[in-house]
């Protein structure tokens, strides 16, 4: 395996995409850490502009180089080069702010309730008095607008996109930008650009939390988000089936690769409780959430039973649980735990 010095030498020759000088010339290699037992290397690089498609390309180059050099997993973080000598950055973007906590809602497989959890956790945090944004990062399979019953579209003011406000949450989704539910056929770099513009062209204002509803699995979009938002935290949604441990392995590997901290696990569809007898039936098995939490060494933030929201004809939002609904209350508890976990961490960082 290469030493840190050798990794430095290897990366020194890579060209920074904006200034067309090598990372060595720019002194852009900030940190290299090797974990031998895990065959893992983590690297922090400086680039002229962060959160760009160019950064993503550079990321691909660097990851490939390091993997070819024999590392099994690669963690990458990017920061902006000091400004002198570098063209001034455009407007400050959310990507660089320290006041916003980013939380991605992820899972190892589809259909477990990521979007439902994202929507209801965002609303719970807003009910707890926080300023909250929600990005539907499922570019192909966007579902947030329908789930929240959003019929308006974002407006544009001074070339900035104003997100839609729904139940106190600022929402952006690809669904706002396609006509008649048409499928989205952009790929690769275009996808990354779309996500970048969700951050940079949207007028988010001040936010305490920005939640990201990820597409299923550990695909490209998830990786893009992870590289754009190095400090992003994650909540992993799982069903109670004991095979959730497999999911844990994948989600855990993803977190290591991207150096993201997992805040905790939410077990969804945990059981069905009969309204008549109050009896709980573990329809989808039992113990998966605990197992996953244990495997990742993180808290189990909550268990959500199977139940539909009460539908309100006047303000139709098919997937939103009311504040007094049994699940609405569980979401509030999860929200409180999330706030407390994130606040503790901020205190630690001081
Ligand atoms: N606790 C629950 N009780 C009843 N239905 C639920 C519950 N959680 C989610 N559902 C339903 O399960 C389906 C899948 O949920 P959702 O779309 O949130 O999953 P997802 O993980 O985002 O899926 P995808 O991987 O396709 O993005 C939806 O129809 C949703 O309404
Ligand atoms: Mg979804």
TrEMBL record:
Gene Ontology MF terms: 4 iron, 4 sulfur cluster binding; ATP binding; ATP hydrolysis activity; ATP-dependent FeS chaperone activity; metal ion binding
GO biological process: iron-sulfur cluster assembly
InterPro entries: FSCA_dom_sf (IPR034904), Mrp-like_CS (IPR000808), Mrp/NBP35_ATP-bd (IPR019591), NUBPL-like (IPR044304), P-loop_NTPase (IPR027417), YlxH/NBP35 (IPR033756)
Keyword field contains Metal-binding: yes
Keywords (A to Z) from UniProt: ATP-binding, Hydrolase, Iron, Iron-sulfur, Metal-binding, Nucleotide-binding
Pfam families, A to Z: ParA
Alphabetized SUPFAM superfamilies for the sequence: Fe-S cluster assembly (FSCA) domain-like, P-loop containing nucleoside triphosphate hydrolases
Residues annotated for ATP binding in this entry: 108-115
Biological function: Binds and transfers iron-sulfur (Fe-S) clusters to target apoproteins. Can hydrolyze ATP.
Family statement: Belongs to the Mrp/NBP35 ATP-binding proteins family.
Quaternary structure and partners: Homodimer.
Annotated protein name in UniProt: Iron-sulfur cluster carrier protein
High-level lineage: Bacteria, Bacillati, Bacillota, Bacilli, Bacillales
